[in-house]
Amino acid sequence: MDKQQLTRLYQYFDIAHQVTQGALARLKDEELDYQPTPEMLSTRALLHHMYGVEKILAESVRAGGYKAAIQCAADAELATLTSIAATKNFGLNCHQILVDALAETAESELTTIIELPPGFFVASAPVWEFFAFAYHEHWHHRGQLTIYMRLLGKPVLDIYAYER
Question: How far apart are the first and last CA of the chain?
Fold first, then answer.
């Protein structure tokens, strides 16, 4: 994937991200602790993961590969998500870090192979895939968030509700 294709993908990603932010506005602070079952993530942990991965992947690109300190810093941020407002701001910040990392990445760097965080299905990938992974991870977990919201009895935004 070249820089122009990634940029177009991220224009769409920005719109999808805005819809996710709109969905978060429908939640209450106390619903951040909701877990459908004990083995599943709480809403807070789900949103932390969903947005934190964007930041971890962006910082891995900037660092030339995954570093454990990136994960430690991201994990520590979970405790700061004490309200919907804080969670929305966390999401906005993480997404902006990702968008900025893409803007800073030169076309020639997109094929550079770097190490991925633990838990991915491969140990390394070209830089362009880090940006694709972040996009797919957001969509995957937004589907999970939609299920949580339905279980909470919340009206759910149409996933394609792009008009603002």
Answer: 30
Strands (E), the chain: 113-115, 124-126
pLDDT in tens, 94-150: 999 999 999 999 999 999 999 888 878 888 999 999 999 999 999 999 999 999 999
Q: Say how far apart CA 57 and CA 101 lie, in whole Å.
A: 9
Of 125, 123, 131, which Cα lies nearest the Cα of 105?
A: 131
Could you give the CA distance from residue 25 to residue 85 in angstroms, rounded to a whole number?
8
3-state secondary structure 7-36: HHHHHHHHHHHHHHHHHHCCCCHHHHHCCC
| Whole-number Å distance between alpha carbons of 152 and 122 | 35
